[in-house]
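Dear U.,

For the methods section draft, I wanted the exact inputs and outputs in one place so we can describe them consistently. I've listed the two proteins in the order they'll appear in the manuscript figures. Please don't edit the token lines directly; just add comments below if something needs changing.

First protein:
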Amino acid sequence: MKLDYKRTILIGFAFLSISAFWQMYDNIIPLILKYFFNIGDTLSGGIMALDNIFALFMLPIFGAISDKVSTNRGKRTPFIFVGTILAVIFMIFLPIAANMRNLALFIVMLLLTLIAMSTYRSPAVSLMPDVTPKPLRSKGNAIINLMGAVGIILVLGLTMVLSGSKDNNTPNYIYLFLAVAAIMIIALVIVLTKVDENRFVAERIAIEKEFGIEDEVEDDGSGDAKLPADVKRSLIFLLLSVAFWFMAYNGVTTAFSKYATETWGMGGGSYAGAMMLASIGALIAFVPVGIISSKLGRKKVILFGVILLAVSWFAAFLFKTPNSGIYVVFILVGIAWASINVNSYPMVVEMCKGSDIGKFTGYYYTFSMAAQVFTPILSGFFLEHVGYWTLFPYATIFSVIAFVTMLQVKHGDSKPDAPKKGVEAFEDLDM
């Protein structure tokens, strides 16, 4: 059995759309808050945490709701359609409000945009495990993340071209927002016309039955099957690890545009070059990481990624001015993040029964978003009251903590050396 790469790529357009939006959001919204509305770093960090506050309770809810939905377009597709359309409509008003210096309109449109994005993120991400047999999910998640990296790179390139003047008081972001909206609509059209969700899910179920693949947790049909104590312990430590490495990574991504502008003097969108290299590093690494993980196991690859992430953040701290070395560091950041992301989500959903994928996707996002609620505020406090130099040590410390908690995870790994009946062929998966 082999992963259906074409199918996975088509499904990945939903994640491409999501990643494109959030990359623009993390890059541009802090600059709008600082230079258009003169909002300080701590308050700006609080505003940047709003999306994660919404996501903290909305992603688990909509993930669980989508588990129970049944339409002729599937469980997840209706949420992707409605959420994308609403998000595109609301987000167009953000640069308009910024240009008008109308903070009230900006905040209202920002809240509506974030709510719309929160309605379809869990359903969109759940599509991959919905249609992918368990032993192939690391490879499948590699393709999904690769598609996300494509969306990120597109936006970073557009940011460099469409961010306007190097004078931070005068950029007009309307063209950038329109370009990202176009990317989201094109991705939605591809999903609607090329992804037959119900058929893909039925085929996945048939394949797992053929190869004797079973859930770790018995599905009693109640929707409330309880995890064994040892599996629950692993799940808790895995989710804590997710929170800690997102504390590190999101702490950097939400403040990097300001850090690069204030500390390294990288104006006019030039900071996007470093983040683009991180995305390129991830893009290069996703597929190899998926293949390696199917051979060595997910946990080992995650631990490698967390170590590399901590070393990379510390190395970035040592640079006082931008030069070629910092770009190498950000490529390594991308490789590290790929090693973590390709495997962490599949490990979470590996611990659930098939009918609970949306709910466990919600658990994953509860912890990642809880971290992202807190980290912009905490890191913003250090930036404003201690100094911008604290950014990379902050990320290093939380990466080290994530490594320690990840060592406690004992379940959810791929088992290449101990396949179940009929699954021996998975040991020799190739492209």
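Second protein (the one for the lower panel):
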Amino acid sequence: MSEELHPVAIRFLAYIRLEKRYSEHTFSAYQQDLTQFFTFLQSTYGDVPLTGITHSHVRTWLASLMEHSNVAKTVNRKISSLKSFFKYALRHGEVSMTPMTKVTAPKIGKRLPGFIDEKGMRALEDNRSMRRGEEKEPVFTDSLEGRTHQLIFELLYNTGIRLSELISLKERHIDAGNLSIKVLGKGNKERIIPISPHLMEEINTYRAVCRKELAEYDQEVLLVNPKSGRKLYPKYVYNVVRDYLTRHEITTINRKSPHILRHTFATHLTNNGADLNAVKELLGHSSLASTQVYTSNSIEKLKAAFKKAHPKG
């Protein structure tokens, strides 16, 4: 950890990693935010004791961030990191009051999550080959690589799991009898997601091909690199999804990332009347507010239909 960090901040980071069991990604974000803040404090004001940090110090830091083109969402995350840290310091008697009570977060412009509409998804699922002149080039071949790429795509869309959850899926997490998978999400929280008989069949076929074509491979994880037999890494999955969506010329989305398929999964469920609490459980959200954003896509769809069809729309 950085030498710029206050000893209490170091203890706080150990607390969220070891006791709260935050993910490595979340831990790194907290560490980066606190390091930036204390580095700024030292370079701008010199040695300021923890008890001497005021809302003015924090506001000056935030203003400098905004001047350097940090967006409101990023600044709000840093505010959240400081709030958690000072709450920890207050609880452990390191400070008598938190400077964050007078710090206001900047407003974030509402942005709906991007998704692929149902017509686009049907085209993706139905069109298993791309025409190149007079020839057809398979998108997903029957090779191990082709089956790996297809299973990546189908798992992401049919379950809504995160990229990190996908590559961490274990063989033992597949329950063929109950047609479900066990997913380890943020904060090491487990959830059960139902899967279709078709997806279960794809998983079983993939397992059989792995056993047949790979002399050695990591048998603990579900998905492996078709060449090395090792656990997949995030960039590999990202490239598979991006290339597939690019080849199919999906123009309704800006970012062709695995997370788009998670947004698509959630939006299609809410558009078709799924209970919001059920969607929340399937996505592994800790708060219903995180799930409610997907209802906005449904509302926008209704608005568009009204405007197009109603005489006074």
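Candidate sentences for the figure legend, describing the second protein: Confidence is low (pLDDT under 50) at residues 128-135. The chain is about 55% helix and 5% strand.

Thanks,
Y.
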